[in-house]
Amino acid sequence: MLRKRKTVDKDAGLVCVYVTSGLYQAEIIRGKLEANDIPVLLKYESLGPVMGLTIDGLGEVEVWVPRALEPQARSLLEESALSTPDETAGEEK
Length: 93
Prior knowledge:
The protein is α+β, with helices and mostly antiparallel strands and 93 residues long. It has a domain of 65 residues. It is built from three helices and four strands; from the N terminus they run E-E-H-E-H-E-H. The protein has a four-stranded antiparallel sheet. The longest helix is centred in the last third of the chain and has 14 residues.
């Protein structure tokens, strides 16, 4: 049975803007957002980082931001994705 991912927490006023498969990448994303004055909450299973597990969702990290700042956060994340160098650049075909 697939678990349905919660992407909005109405009580806390937060929304999930990104999901990654490791704490390292999530921390980089957190730094980018916080450098632009967007507070971030990372949600993850504590067993993943402690044991180094990445199977069955244990390594997943959700990046949550305040709902009011969601458009700005998504824009920054899209900007980062577009500015990432293409790994195939420079390869001969």
